[in-house]
Structures are given as C-alpha cells and as structure tokens.
Amino acid sequence: MSIDIHNLQIAYNDKIIIPCANLKIPENKITILIGPNGCGKSTLLKSIMKIIPIKKGKIFLNGINTKNLSQKKLAQKIALLPQSPTIPDGINVKNLVAYGRFPHQKLLSGLTKQDYDIIDWAIEETGISELKNRSVEKLSGGQRQRVWIALALAQKTDILILDEPTTYLDMAHQLEILELLQKLNKENKMTILMVLHELNHASKFADNIVGMKKGNIIFEGSPNDVINTENLKKLYEIEATLIKDKKKGYPICMDYSIINEN
Q1: Verdict on whether the full-model pTM lies above 0.90
Q2: Cα 158 → chain centroid
Q3: Which of 1, 146, 249, 256 could form a disulfide with 240 if both were Cys (CB 3.0 to 4.6 A apart)?
C-alpha cells in the first residue's frame, strides 16, 4: 500500500508550515524523514492521518483520496505511533495492545477470538510475551516502545507511521527498536514511514530517505544516492565528512562542522 502526496499545503492559522509538497512513499519499503527541528516532518505525518487539516492539495492511499475516508477507515489502513504517547493509568501490556483492535470493532461489540489471536500475534512479533501481564508504567523506555509498536501492529494495517520512535532511548535500545522495525518490514511486507533525527541510523535502516527543510522536500532517494556532502550542506548547513560502511556500503557521517558564511 503506497501513499501519494500531491501539491500539499499545510498551515497553522495564517502561518504556512508546508508550502507545496509532492512525495510518493514507496510500498513495502522503509522511508525515513530527516531534517532540522521544526521543518514540518511531524506536520506531514499528522496531515496523512488527518490530525491536521489540509489547506491545499491531496493525499492518496492506494489511489483513494484520504479526504473520502473516515478516521476509523483510515485507522484500519494506517497505524500511527506518535511522539511520547500517553499511558492510561494502571494498564497492563496486553490490555494496552488490545487498544489496537478498536478501529475494527463494531459499536457495542467486545473483542472476538480473532481479535485476541491478533493481539497475541502482535505481542509475539515484538518479543514482549514475558511482559504481557506487567504494568506498562513500570517498564523501561525500550520495553514501552516495543509495547506501543505491538499496539500499532494489532491494528493489522499495511502501513506503519512512527514519529521519532527512538527519542529518549539509549544507543542500544535505539538499535533494538530499529532492528525490530526492519524485521517487521521484511517479514510482514509493511510499508514503514518514520521521522528520525539520527542521520547514521537513517542511512543504515532506510530504503528511501526524504530530506525536509522549511516545509520543502530538499531531496529524496536511497541513502547512497542522497546522503552526500552537498545535500547535507543544503539540509543542515554543515560540512560533513562521510565514509561508506565496509560491509553494507551505506554512507556514514564521521564528523561535521557548521558552515561559517563570514
């Protein structure tokens, strides 16, 4: 399932955040948005999910204009993991993951055997079976993030959108979460779109990287095609030193300095 964005304009009141974006999120791939803080990355994700209204332009999901989809129908097709989601008081892991089935429930109906099977599958896929009866509030940051990903998986969508899923995690847990997402992408053919700030993580895990600055798409393509000194200069106003990973060949930023225009 692909996402096509045409001439998208987003504004908060009279302030334009995204002036005119055109972008295709490829099917069954990992696409990572990078760029400076406040450049419109999270706004773009929220516009796809209809959390923020579109001022101009269109967003298509497999050829269907999302304007014609209800929030419930959209949630049956795309799962969103926002930044720092709120944990309901006193809830355990399995009950939180069960929230992922809400978009598929009929009015006043409870969870079915199929729902419970999907919840168990999502818990198994994310490696949190031993945590399912634990209070979510008592888990570590890395464990909590796996629980949230399990909730998103329980929605049984073809597309997973994540806004900075590695924020506040240490390096080992960041790697653990990104490896999990890569596994889900390959084994379940999920289309994954996420925002990351760590450039080297983006290069390592993305099939497709999109660079955004001031609401504009600066570049788009595979890490080897777009992560170069010229594009990083445009995007971050830095002078970067890049090398290639010896085993997998993706670009790695070894050092950088701020460009002094004086």
Answers
A1: yes
A2: 13
A3: 256
Rounded (10°) angle between helices 141-154 and 171-188: 20
What percentage of the chain has pLDDT greater than the value 90?
93
| CB neighbour class for 46 (10 Å; exposed up to 12, middle 13-18, buried from 19) | middle
Helix (H, G, I), strand (E, B) or coil at 56: strand
pLDDT of residue 50: 95
* pLDDT of the residue at 1: 78
The two three-digit tokens of residue 107, written as one number:
């009015």
Q: Read off the tokens for 122.
A: 């999502």
C-alpha span between 208 and 223 (Å, rounded): 7
Burial 13-32 (b: 16+ CB within 10 A, else e): eeebbbbebebebeebbbbb
262 pLDDT above the threshold of 70: no
Could you tell me which of 133, 203, 191, 193 has the C-alpha nearest to residue 162? 193
Strands 56-61 and 159-163: unpaired
State pLDDT tens for residues 24-76: 999 999 999 999 999 999 999 999 999 999 999 999 999 999 999 999 999 99
DSSP secondary structure code for residue 157 in this structure: -
